[in-house]
Design goal:
alpha/beta; Quinone Oxidoreductase, Chain A, domain 1; seven-stranded mixed sheet; six-stranded parallel sheet; 31% helix; 27% strand; Zn-ADH-like_protein
């Protein structure tokens, strides 16, 4: 089979290649899946450089999440040949076949095709962990979402709107704001540059935001500390902007807000029952049409470089889906 492999770490994708390799051998407790669609996530790009917190030793196959059809499974696994599934692992999904533990898979929700299924898992489970589990979002609250063209942040915009929150979608690329507004109709969109706190204050009538979902870091984090309402929460989801920010502890003390770190995968591992509930609730909302992932483009796996370069160049509004076998 063909798989997208990292032979060595590099800053310019020179260590990545589409290679021929043997089919995975299914072990007891695992499910063998024919991958029909794989989703590109920002950690995939970071892993090619060795810059992600999880650092697999090369060579390894890229891809954290996918959707496809079961080829073979244990009789007591809950899955059977032909079942449509979604899920994945930290690596391995950007290949024609993948063998993973049954617990790493879920039935593909009714109404979702393989492309939407591949785009759904990690982004929406992270957004749900941030907003609901750790943020305690309530209908009517103001939620500011930064980096709102990216997979997790765009999912947070979609999810927050579905849960009845009032959403400000922010992006450092003003040309992306009309597309974000078209997709999910946030209550307001802003360009996140400079002193955007004044815009947030005007939009919210001076109350500022109960929750700030912050996957960018750097200057965006710094200014976001001025956008959180008293008693609110600043949800740290990542550092896509590059600089890991510092905060003087007098700021949350005086303003009475919390800084909350969000690691959805670790949260689900430490609290497996909650992790299952998150996965089930995301699937339920997708099946009912309450949420739906945005896909920027779908490409054959043979055009992987185009996908990775588009992500590195911050060209995307939504997810890139790669189709193995093409």
């Amino acid at each position: 089979m063909k798989a997208l492999r990292v032979s060595h770490l590099s800053s310019d994708l020179s260590g990545v290649e589409l290679a021929e390799m043997s089919m995975p051998e299914r072990k007891t407790g695992e499910v063998l899946v024919r991958v029909r669609a794989a989703s590109l996530n920002f950690p995939d790009l970071l892993m090619t450089r060795g810059e992600y917190q999880f650092k697999p030793e090369p060579p390894f196959t890229l891809g954290m999440e996918m959707a496809g059809e079961v080829v073979e499974a244990d009789p007591d696994s809950g899955f059977a040949a032909g079942d449509r599934v979604m899920g994945g692992a930290k690596t391995g999904s950007m290949a024609e076949f993948l063998s993973v533990p049954a617990r790493a898979l879920a039935p593909l929700p009714d109404g979702l095709d393989f492309e939407k299924g591949a785009a759904m898992g990690a982004a929406y489970q992270t957004a749900y962990t941030a907003l609901v589990e750790q943020g305690g979002v309530q209908a009517g609250q103001w939620v500011l979402v930064h980096g709102a063209s990216g997979g997790v942040a765009l999912a947070a915009v979609d999810l927050a709107k579905a849960l009845g929150a009032k959403v400000i979608a922010a992006s450092g690329s003003p040309q992306k704001l009309p597309r974000i507004a078209e997709l999910y109709a946030p209550d307001a969109t802003i360009e996140s540059v400079g002193r955007f706190r004044d815009q947030v204050s005007e939009i919210t009538g001076g109350t500022l935001c109960d929750l700030v979902c912050e996957p960018v870091g750097g200057d965006i984090f710094d200014e976001s500390t001025r956008c959180v309402a008293f008693g609110g929460k600043l949800l740290v989801v990542g550092f896509a902007g590059g600089r890991i920010a510092d905060i003087a502890t007098n700021i949350p003390l005086i303003k009475g807000f919390s800084v909350v770190g969000v690691r959805a995968g670790e949260y689900a591992r430490r609290f497996p029952e909650r992790g299952k509930r998150i996965k089930d609730e995301v699937a339920r909302m997708a099946s009912s049409g309450q949420i739906s992932p945005a896909i920027d483009r779908t490409l054959p796996l043979s055009r992987w470089r185009e996908a990775f370069e588009a992500m590195a160049g911050r060209e995307l509004v939504g997810k890139v889906i790669l189709i193995p076998g093409q």
